[in-house]
Amino acid sequence: MELKYCTLLKHLTTAFALCITSGSAAFAQSPVTIGFVTHSQGDAFIQQIIDGAQSAAKDLGVNLKVAQQSGSAPDAQLKLVQNIVNAGAAGVATSVPGESMTRGLNDIIAAGIPMVQYNLIGESVKAPYVGERSTESGRILGRMVLDKLGGKSAKGKVVIGNCFPGLASLENRAKGVEESLKSAPGIQVLGPYDVKVSAVENYNHWEQLHAANPDAVAMIGLCAPDVASLGKLNAATGDKFIAAGYDLTEQNLKAIKDGHAYVTLGQSAYVQGYLPVALLVNAIRNKTRLQPGFLNAGTQVVTAQSVDMGNGLPKLTFAQLQAMSASPSATADYYKAWAKSVDGAGVVSRIQPITMEGK
């Protein structure tokens, strides 16, 4: 006989029934389904994260159900998580684009559904987070730009843009960038300014910032679309500034190859997708509870002359990386040895206090 246990979770603005089915042979034999919820549907970087999650699901023998929203509205994201859990997911991974999601996510966790955060963190969510060390990542990017400008003797305006003002990980990146740039007294830091996340809006905002600061010596973005936008802008205005930013998307790498952007930092998108699924599968199969904490996905540093992929991964040339960025299957092949080394219980043992994310 099949039994259902339901918990009614009530909020000020939402209410939903969370049902867990047990006691039937059909349930026992059915494959585990993991939910994977993202913001910014269609973004190339987000797709790289999804590719990693799909590879993990294949390697670990579970079903992956992906749900996406086009923007980053917290309420819309929470609704997707609730829907995917109500549809029967045994665990869920989600980015957290707003702290207003915290109560709803914590209610799901309290009902016994394991959860992992990735990419965008909710600091009060009672679940582990997989991502970069955000402030340190900003420091690295700031140092790279400053060295290119001449080090501590560098002078001029540096404009910083943030596509999601208020998000902790991006604010930390900005803090790290500014910390490195301040070692040069002659550098004037402007921003961070809101440059939006959609490709069209992002380019338009950078274009406006350049028009207001045509003498800027560098422009630094903190989000995935920025390097492509800045490369396009630099090409249109005579390559007069250093363009720098984040993520190893096909478009960003092309901007670097073409000489219109200098450096982009990866935050190990494939790893950010793979590890949450590994953590969830381990928790579900071993009936263990995931505790809050931080799991460092690593930082990658890429210029046209050098590629550092982090995580002990094999060396790549820039040309090899560029080819891989356009091929999910080639990416999975590249990470295959790393993926085989991923042990769910071992990954749990590497979780650090959540405060390490911003160190």
Tag the structure with descriptive keywords.
359 residues; alpha/beta; Rossmann fold; 2 domains; 7-stranded mixed beta sheet; 6-stranded parallel beta sheet; 42% helix; globular; disordered N terminus
Spell out the blueprint of helices and strands.
Blueprint: E1 3-10, E2 15-22, H1 25-29, E3 33-38, H2 44-60, E4 63-68, H3 74-86, E5 91-94, H4 102-110, E6 115-118, E7 128-131, H5 134-149, E8 155-162, H6 168-181, E9 186-194, H7 199-212, E10 218-221, H8 226-236, E11 242-246, H9 250-257, E12 263-266, H10 269-286, E13 293-296, E14 300-303, E15 307-308, H11 318-325, H12 328-334, H13 336-340, H14 344-349
Parallel strand pairs: 3-4, 3-5, 5-6, 6-7, 7-13, 8-9, 8-10, 10-11, 11-12
Antiparallel strand pairs: 1-2, 12-14, 14-15
How many whole angstroms does the radius of gyration measure? 21 Å
Q: At the third CATH level, what is the topology name of the largest domain? A: Rossmann fold
**SS content category:** alpha/beta
Mean pLDDT: 92
Describe this structure as you would to a colleague.
The protein is α/β, with parallel strands linked by helices. It has 2 domains: 192 residues, Response regulator (Rossmann fold, 3-Layer(aba) Sandwich); 133 residues, 3-Layer(aba) Sandwich (Rossmann fold). The protein is 42% helix and 22% strand. It contains 14 helices and 15 strands. The strands form 3 sheets. Strands 9-8-10-11-12-14-15 form a 7-stranded mixed beta sheet, with helices on both faces. Helix 2 links the parallel strand 3 and strand 4. The longest helix has 18 residues. 47% of the residues are buried.
